[in-house]
Amino acid sequence: MQFLSDNSDLLWSAFLTTLSLAVVSGVCALVLGTVLAGMRVSPVPPLRGLATFYVEVFRNTPLTVVFFFLAFGIVEIDLQFPSRFITAVAALSLYTAAFVCEALRSGINAVPPGQAEAARALGLTFGQALRQVVLPQAFRTVVPPLGNVWIALAKNTSIAAGFAVTELTASLQRLANVNADQLLAVFAAVVAGYLVITLPSAWLIRVIENRVAIVR
Amino acid sequence: MRSTRRIAAFAALGLTLAACSSEAGNQAAEESSAAPTVAEDVDFPAGSTMAALNEAGTITVGTKYDQPGFGLLNPQSGDPEGFDVEIAKLIAAELGIAEDDITWTETVSANREPFIQNGQVDMVVATYTINDARKQVVDFAGPYYLAGQDIMVAEGNPEGIEGPDDLAGKTVCSVEGSTPAQNIRDNYPEAQLTTYDVYSKCADDLRNGNVQAVTTDNVILTGLVAGSDGAFELVGNPFTEEPYGIGLALGDTDFRNFVNDVLEEAFEDGRYADAWDRTAGSITGEEAPEPPAVDRY
Asked: Which regions form coiled coils (chain B) (predicted)?
């Protein structure tokens, strides 16, 4: 317990950093992933091609490599993010958006084609039909896979530890060195930090899933 | 993609170095002066560790495989090379064990004590700082080298950093969880510390101007400076003292005294300086340091 009170400042700020990394990246990834999913089902071939290319690139690249490229690679073309936190948000968002897009696309494909056809027959444009008819139904069916993506994202924030962001895993590395005799307490504190984020998320995902489920 | 080329250049450099050093190794085999002379008619007290090792004709030594100049694995020969390795060979030779009969084991910072305690290695020569906490679980012969925390800056030292006090208000990089990083946090809080998981990322950040300095043990910085093609330089003003010792099993005082005797002889008769010149000294171009006083605690 002594250990907890001595290091409460570091652990608290590390926890807040992990949480804000996950939340900010999660929102960005959701927006970008939705746009990408719209592109992948659009009737315009170049848009479809572009989104497919994006998904294949980011889904098949290790997250660490994405981090490395954004932290050190783009300097070679004279680009630089204003801070390492923003670098981490960018890497996590770009990477996770690919998974959001694919989860959402599976939801879109699960909406019976008759829905989109009826919407178009009523005179809605493709964009209107997507936004007002197809996507609302698609989101309902993809709550569980999106929940998986979110929990994976919350844990993926740990990669930022290797790129100068002092989040929970970085605090683990620091505390483990100074408190070699209390390693178990250090691990427990850091694991608890992640569980505080992921366990309520899992519960919330179940609640949302039950509330929005459609019986077909 | 300049960075790709840089990586390729590094790989090429590594191969060249490896090639050079294996040549040096071959020469060493031919000229008996380079390889330590193996003691032949040695007589050790019955039941001592020295007698047991001499009888077995082999010794297991733990060293680092990733420290240029001190202990770096040569991928071609499969054996490590460096100053620590040469020190271990000196001791083995005095035990009547030829260098080909030494069994090398990689030890990293986290596993040195357990390896000694479990008897997986007979000794550890691995940039191993002597301190009181470690003396509780292992014995130390030596020290045979005094390292210290130092600072690496860009070529020409544009920020005029001469010591840790000049780091105030500057951005400085180290590795998260390392003792040098903690030292900066505790004693130089004015410095803005950035921490990565490996030093090569600190070097990248120094190269592209994201940080103004990199700090850790001078031994590690020396390797980075040597691989930087003149882009970095060492401030050369160590501000901590890290005495490197040889880790041995706790309580084996006879063996510890023996190793200390060997070290003192080697300090005197030039084998120490010779080992330095062929390893770390050939990277830095510096002369062998004055050997530290052995601490027979």
From this structure: none
| CATH 3.40.190.10-classified regions of chain B | 47-146+243-284, 149-234
Instruction: Render each residue's pLDDT in chain B as its tens digit; 297 residues.
Output: 444 445 554 444 444 444 444 444 444 433 334 677 887 777 888 888 999 999 899 999 999 888 888 888 988 888 999 999 999 999 999 999 999 999 999 988 777 888 898 899 999 999 888 888 888 889 999 899 998 999 999 999 999 999 999 999 999 999 887 889 989 999 999 999 999 988 889 999 999 888 999 999 888 898 888 878 889 999 988 999 889 999 999 999 999 999 999 999 999 999 999 999 988 888 777 788 888 999 988
Residue A16: C-alpha distances to residues A148, A151, B34 (Å): 21, 16, 58
CATH number of B47-146+243-284: 3.40.190.10
The architecture in CATH of the region B149-234 reads 3-Layer(aba) Sandwich (3.40)
Please name the residues in contact with B214: beta carbons below 8 A apart, sequence gap of 6 or more.
Answer: B151, B152, B153, B172, B173, B174, B199, B202, B203, B205, B206, B221, B224, B232
Min distance B209 CA to chain A CA atoms (Å): 10
Distance from CA of A162 to the nearest CA of B (A): 5
DSSP H helices, chain A, are 2-6, 8-40, 45-59, 63-68, 84-110, 113-121, 126-129, 135-141, 143-156, 168-178, 183-212
Strands B149-154 and B232-234, by their bridges, are antiparallel
**Whole-model pTM over 0.80:** no
Check B194 against A84: CB less than 8 A apart: yes
Q: Which residues of A27-43 are buried (b: 16+ CB within 10 A; e: fewer)?
A: ebbbebbbebbbbbbee
The full set of domains in chain A, from first to last, is 2-212 (1.10.3720.10)
Cα A201 to its chain centre, rounded Å, is: 13
